[in-house]
Amino acid sequence: MNVFSVCVKSMMVLGVMLSTSVMAADAALPAAPAPIASAGKVMFFLLITLVLIVGLAWIVSKTRGVQLAQGQGKVRVVATLPLGMKEKIAVIQVGDKQMVVGVTAQQITHLGDLDEPLALDAPAAAGSFQELLKKAIRS
């Protein structure tokens, strides 16, 4: 026996072992699901995602987004009066001074100052997210 024949025999044994292990692994793997069967699941989750997006957009449009996050800073919106789809008059408080401004989609115009300040509503205590969400849904 020469070295060449030993190498060839060991390569043949190794090849047989690899091929049997590959066949065993192929037999152990489950069959892949049919694409048509998984299409129903994909459509279902796509529909749920779209409904969720539309629902959240509706909630934000009803609450006008910033009303939930209105801060207690130096500038506050005291009152607003909608005049159209994109126009409104607002009374804002800057420090101790209250001003009337006109708001459009393109600009904000100072209309005047108030001699007698409007009474400020008592600021609502910041509640939990659940309470804020309930308020937003009721509106």
**Shape, per Cα inertia axes:** elongated
- Secondary structure: helix percent: 40-55%
Strand proportion: 15-25%
Chain-averaged pLDDT: 79
Give me the secondary-structure topology:
Layout: H1 3-28, H2 35-63, E1 75-82, E2 88-94, E3 97-103, E4 108-113, H3 129-138
Account of the 3D structure:
The protein is an alpha+beta fold and 139 residues long. Among the domains are: 1-30; 64-118 and 127-138, no CATH class. Helix content is 47%, strand content 20%. It has helices at 3-28, 35-63, 129-138; strands spanning 75-82, 88-94, 97-103, 108-113. A 4-stranded antiparallel beta sheet has the order 1-2-3-4, with no helix packed on it. Strand 3 (97-103) and strand 4 form a beta hairpin. The N and C termini lie far apart (93 Å).
Note the main attributes of this structure:
139 residues; alpha+beta; 4 strands; 47% helix; 3 helices; 4-stranded antiparallel β-sheet; elongated
Quick overview:
The chain has 139 residues and is an alpha+beta fold. Helices cover 47% and strands 20% of the residues. A hairpin with a 4-residue loop joins strand 3 and strand 4.
